[in-house]
Specification:
Oligomer: single chain
CATH class: Alpha Beta
Number of domains: 1
Distance between the termini: 16 Å
Order of helices and strands: EHEHEHEHEHEHHEEHHEHEHE
CATH superfamily: Divalent-metal-dependent TIM barrel enzymes
Number of helices: 11
Low-confidence stretches: none
Strand order of the largest sheet: 2-3-4-5-6-7-10-1-11
CATH architecture: Alpha-Beta Barrel
Structural class: alpha/beta
Number of strands: 11
Mean pLDDT: 97
Helix content: 40-55%
Shape: globular
CATH topology: TIM Barrel
């Protein structure tokens, strides 16, 4: 039987950027992640947590926390994008590996601005752009693994070019399973009109990582009707704590358990911006809810 190690991330504390006055300061995030009962965390945006390995290791050890993964955005469909993407990815992969993480979650850069929601480029990729993105992602996954020993976990995302289930399948068909895994984010899949359980079953051979999220269907319907950006949707509260939204997590976690994989399932609830007192009670309730799910392979501590 595999093990599903459940953790959390800065995203669940309203953190989207390395430095932002509306965000929870990193010491409070670390304190509250531990207080909520989690052992594993993600690094979040590079620069939010200390980037000096010794300082970061001390901050983690003082709270009995461990790192599952770092995070980086890619824009490999653009011309001449390799050097900049690799520089950012290498920084994240290096720090992740030094503090014991085994993965880097790679997110496609959105065609809308992450903060304002302004449209920055076309919603659809050309055939040439698809080719650049998938070939570039193969190279990025290989380079991170061969240089730093970390796996690329590719994370489909709302308002990006890898969003719908169909685009996820197309992306996976064109990338190398030896170096590119799928980070299945249940919130983003359902937000983009897919069904997480169906995607899980169809892509089970590529699953390397999970993000656990739920979507409010009524708010999502408003977002679709008015063509609102993901940033606007989050401000409206489209991502909700379980079990208040979709997809249902117990059947999905049970399906993951049947795959007998060892992987991380990181709780994320997009809440940017949010009051600093909001995340901890939600994190505690979510931790209790997940602990009540009858999935024997779930682990919250070593």
């Amino acid at each position: 039987m595999g093990t599903i190690r459940v953790g959390t991330a800065p995203d669940s504390w309203g953190v989207w950027f390395a430095d932002d006055p509306y965000q929870t300061p990193y010491p409070r995030f670390l304190d509250e992640a531990a207080a909520a009962g989690y052992e594993w965390i993600e690094l979040g945006p590079f620069g939010y947590l200390p980037t000096d390995p010794a300082k970061l290791a001390d901050e983690l050890a003082g709270r009995d926390l461990k790192v599952s993964a770092g995070t980086v955005f890619e824009y490999l469909h653009r011309d001449d994008s390799w050097a900049g993407t690799w520089q950012r990815a290498a920084d994240v992969a290096r720090l992740t590996a030094v503090v014991g993480g085994t993965s880097v979650v790679v997110i496609p850069q959105m065609w809308r601005d992450q903060g304002s929601g302004a449209v920055l480029e076309n919603r659809e990729l050309t055939a040439a752009q698809w080719k650049r993105k998938t070939e570039g992602m193969n190279a990025l996954g290989r380079a991170m693994f061969e240089t730093y020993g970390v796996r690329a976990q590719y994370h489909p995302h709302a308002d990006s070019h890898i969003d719908s289930a169909e685009n996820v399948y197309r992306f996976l068909d064109a990338t190398d399973a030896d170096f590119v895994d799928l980070c299945l984010d249940t919130g983003h899949i359902d937000y983009c009109g897919g069904d997480s359980l169906t995607v899980l079953e169809r892509t089970s051979g590529r699953i390397g990582y999970l993000h656990l999220k739920q979507v409010d269907p009524q708010i999502r319907a408003k977002v679709a009707a008015e063509d609102l950006s993901f940033a606007e949707a989050v401000r409206l509260g489209v991502m909700v704590e379980p079990p208040l939204g979709v997809p249902e997590l117990p059947p999905l976690l049970s399906a993951v358990a049947r795959l007998e994989l060892d992987l991380f399932a990181i709780v994320e609830q997009d809440m940017y911006p949010c009051d600093a007192d909001v995340p901890l009670p939600i994190a505690r309730r979510t931790r209790r809810y997940l602990g009540s799910c009858t999935v024997p392979s779930l682990r919250f501590r070593r």
